[in-house]
Design goal:
The complex is a heterodimer of chains A (301) and B (281).
Chain A lengths: L2 E6 L2 E6 L13 H19 L3 E6 L9 E3 L12 E5 L5 E6 L3 H9 L4 E5 L11 E8 L5 H16 L6 E4 L5 E6 L7 H18 L4 E2 L11 E4 L8 E3 L11 E2 L2 E2 L1 H8 L9 E2 H11 L5 H4 L8
Parallel strand pairs in A: 11-12
Antiparallel strand pairs in A: 1-2, 3-4, 3-6, 3-7, 5-6, 7-13, 8-10, 8-12, 9-10, 9-15, 14-16
Helix pairs in contact in A: 1-2, 1-6, 3-5
Chain B lengths: L26 E7 L2 E9 L23 E3 L4 E3 L6 E6 L2 E5 L1 H6 L7 E9 L8 E9 L4 H14 L1 E9 L2 E10 L2 E7 L20 H13 L12 H15 L18 H17 L1
Parallel strand pairs in B: 1-7
Antiparallel strand pairs in B: 1-2, 2-8, 3-4, 5-6, 7-9, 8-11, 9-10, 10-11
Classes of the chains: A alpha+beta (301), B alpha+beta (281).
Chain lengths: 301, 281
Amino acid sequence: MSRKVVEIAGKRLSLSNLEKDLYPSYGFTKARILEYYRRIAKFILPHLKNRALTLKRYPEGVEEDFFFEKRCPPHRPEWAKTAEIRRDDGERMTVCLVNNLETLIWVENLASLELHVPLARASSPETPDFMVFDLDPGERANILDCASVALILRDLLSGLGLKGHLKTSGKKGLHMYVPLNRKDTTFEDTKKFSKAVAGIMQKNYPDLVTARMAKEYRKSKVFINWAQNDSSKTMVCVYSLRAQEKPVVSFPLSWKELERLAGKGDPGRLRILHSEALRRAEDGGDLFREVLVKKQKLPHL
Amino acid sequence: MKSHNPNLSASKSSSGREPEMIPQGIWSGTISFSLVAIPVQLVKAVDPGRVSFRMLHRDDYSPLQRRMFCPEEERIVAPDEIVKGYEIGPGKYIVMTDEELESVTPERSRTIEIIEFIDMKDVDPIYYEHPYYLVPLKGGEKAYRLLVEVLHRTNKAGLAKFVLAEREYLVAVESREGALALITLHYSEEILPDQDILPKGGKIETEEKSRMKNVIKKMMADFRPEKYADERREKILGLLKKKIKEKALVEAPEIGEEQGEGPADLIAALEESMRKVKKNR
């Protein structure tokens, strides 16, 4: 077993198995995963900050079993920031807060390739900072169909004075985030609102959209998963790697880019790999920044 | 993604849990006595690895929640309405607030200060609670090796008080296989008196004694713990693995999917906006 001790911001970390290939059919070692997260850190950290991290760990790589870990592993370094949260069942649970580079590298050393976080911060678990629409293509639908749905959604919401931001899920779908950043918005509000939006979309585009979870309704359609607007749910964080065959990233897209790509008929253009993600973030900055700061109020509730 | 995904780490468990993971320190600080100070990190030496389950409603697989119920008012009580009470007699309690409990919680230790050295053979194993290892940190390697060596040669252990996770432990620091081990010990008041379980007198025949000695001799073996495993755990993990392969998984229902469309004002505004969207397309 190989290990290497590094020091980040004065904190010592023992990194293990750096040469282990965690994306075997593509060829992407743990060292390169750590390097990706080191370079993307300044973009991803604001989006992880003070949110209860769910680790999705792939100790044997993306082709083997994974497991979720909601509790912060008890063998964490003493400097790792944590928060106490109350689960649905009333039990307390200690969770990790990834607020700095050293913690990010530590969780990545645990092979937590995917980073999932809730829509609310750990200190205000009932206040979502954004409303999300998780656009998930069913069988025989693809990410281009999601793009069409996203563009309609954008226009629909803009008629109500709301602006949304888009990212790829890194798998097959797209995620639209509507920033709220208001203390008085609750999950009850975002759920009610997003459900009404999904209902209207389904009613007006019945061949393209479904708002129902059950798989049999989702064939050839895009499922608008509004139920993600819940305190118990998490979404994959923007800039997180996904455990796909290749190291694909959940990456923000501008509406312009989506409009351009939506007509092209090439779903591959919406799969953004690690290297492209780094290049685009380093050149263009954080396209998802507004999600954390823009204040918007959900009307007509 | 869905929340509450089961921890199906079941994966490689028969060969031990994620063998490639290095345990990260659960605490770091220094061991010290006299003029010696060795920077170290505390890591786990054992991991019981229990398999845990969520409770689901049999009819629809909704994960169930635990709620505190007040039998007096016949209602569920919110967490902020709950206080801790120490029962001193039937229906009589002393209430303790979180602040009061915190005021007596010791500060986290920065050092493992060895108070005295003892002979490890004097420690009855009944006092052993939980084993850990101490790993040397940068700059401490030499002093660490020296302490390991000397404790090993003399068969001595350092006794210290140490606060971990809000509790103050009595710990023994000993040499084990070239490393320092830290064992939390029970306090003597935790050890239950054993007089009551000792059987009363009665003479034992020499013949009976030698017969039993013979039986034991015949059954002697080297202690090889790897021969044994928690069979129930292994079987549960095997079963889970099989069920994952068979995709025998059930999904919890989405909450509130059946409710109405939404507030009338919102629906009207959305209809209006949708009309414009369609017109412009």
